[in-house]
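Lab manual, section 2.4: Encoding a predicted structure.

Procedure: take the sequence of the chain (149 residues), apply the prediction step described in section 2.3, and record the output as structure tokens. A sample record is shown.
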Amino acid sequence: IYCWGQDMFPEMLADMEAATQSIYIESFIIHDDTTGNALMDVLCKKAQEGIEVKLLYDDVGSILTPNSFFHRLTKAGGQVQAFFPVKWRLPLSINFRNHRKITVIDGIIGYMGGINIGDEYANCSKSRDKLLWRDTHIRLTGPVDGLLL
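Recorded output:
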């Protein structure tokens, strides 16, 4: 159990570095900052190695993250998809967002909880007016085949 992003991110990135088959990530917010780029660097490296890498992010939650940030993974051989892309017309679909944060590595390591991906959530933001971000995330291990019905 993790209560702080700064404790969770290094272990999650190490698990991703050790992936031999697949990395699947779903997150509400992914920032183009030091933490987000550390994640993207690992994902791109693993995709170039032939590991199946899939990333799903919420289009509203990550609206400040430039598309070029996500295109890096596509160019490296991974798959990227925005959840419920924003269409600037009425009625706006702001109410049906995907706030899940789930990572599955090789089908045997899972991370889930409330920590988004960014410096703010890793408590390493350079902004002095940011309070420490505390949220809960868990790491699970074991086979997950057949759990989804």
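Check your result against the sample. The chain has a mean pLDDT of 89.
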